[in-house]
Amino acid sequence: MATWRKLTQEDEIPSFIDAAANLHQPLLDRIPRDERPFFFDAWLTRFNHCDAWRLPTSVGGPALVTVPRVADRHEYRWQVRTLAVGAAAEDTLVLPPEVGVDRSFLMPCPSGQPTSRSVLAEMTATPVQLGLVVRLDDVAVPAPVDWRLHESSEQDMAGILTLLERAYPWLEETASRPPIGTSARFTTDTPDLHRQREELRQLVSHDAGWCFHATIDDDATPVAMASYLALPLPLLGVPAVLTADLAVDPPYRGRGLARTLQQFACTRLQRSGVRWLHGNIDPDNIASRRQAEGMGRTVWWETVRFAAVDG
Questions:
Q1: Residue 294 DSSP code
Q2: For position 93, what pLDDT does the model report?
Q3: 105-108 and 81-85: which strand pairing?
Q4: Residues whose CB falls within 8 Å of the CB of residue 255, separated by 6 or more in sequence, listed in order
Q5: CA distances, 209 to each of 118, 122, 222, 223 (Å)
Q6: Fold for domain 136-299?
Q7: Which of 25, 108, 176, 287 is deepest in the core (most CB within 10 A)?
Q8: N- to C-terminal Cα distance for the chain?
């Protein structure tokens, strides 16, 4: 069995950082050199807040796993397990005994494609979220359209929330949002409309993010909306924004409205100094993935859940 080394001492930080950099090099190669210092700051923060184990190449690695000491305090932030595995360790890897597989792991996708097989011995792997990224410089400027595109204000919130109810009729006031790293396949819960209402209120009232919407002609009724939160690129730490919500009124779907609104939003976000946009998509949501890829977004990481092989 592979012998993992738990890293706990300050003098082990260099080996931790070296392992993180080597195992995430394909992602580092995708960002400019002047942004790479953010990566090292993010992993130093992770070392301080997580338990970490390193598997050297000499004993079956390379591999690196981190587990937050305080998990699930905020579903979008750093409190998520990570696992990075070199090609030589795939298929034969066994996690440290202290690390269970009851939770999902954030893993880099060096090839730009989700996992097709498990990196762990005698375990199956199921991607439950894909992280797709685009540099805003690469997003096309929206072409002139008949829709009217706006940056949302507090006065628009009632109409946007009504739009969410029309776009997602299954929303329930009492349901809870699935925890990060899960998807509808692993929970019977549906998104929480009350929570979305509060998030949007805070986003607009306190400038906690960005929200945009579209209307038709002189009608002030929102027919599409997109909201964004400030969140560094996972695994990289580079300043970026996360797509928090995207909704289109059912009668207006299939007309390119979602793409046009997002292109408009990206133009406005660039003016704020934002360089990167990312979002999490369920692998089974083919329409959303195609729409994201149509804007130039590509897969950089995935959230994976492992399970023992039956029999």
A1: H
A2: 86
A3: parallel
A4: none
A5: 36, 43, 19, 20
A6: Aminopeptidase (3.40.630)
A7: 108
A8: 21
The whole-number pLDDT of residue 87 equals 80
Tell me if 143 sits within 8 A of 223, measured CB to CB. no
Query: Cβ neighbours of residue 206 under 8 Å, at least 6 residues apart?
Result: none
pTM to 2 decimal places: 0.86
- Counting Cα atoms < 13 Å in the Cβ hemisphere of 271 gives 8
Query: Pairing state of beta strands 105-108 and 123-135?
Result: unpaired
Q: Where are the domains of the chain?
A: 5-131+304-308, 136-299
pLDDT beneath 70: ranges in the chain: 1-2, 59-60, 71-79, 169-193, 311
The residues, ordered by sequence, that sit 6+ positions from 27 with a Cβ below 8 Å of its Cβ are 108, 110, 235, 236, 300, 301
pLDDT attached to residue 101: 84
**How far apart are alpha carbons 48 and 29 in whole angstroms?**
25
Tokens of residue 191, six digits? 């998104």
Q: Is 54 helix (H, G, I), strand (E, B) or coil?
A: strand
CA distance 150 to 72: 34
- Left (φ > 0), alpha (ψ -120 to 50) or beta: where does 296 sit? left
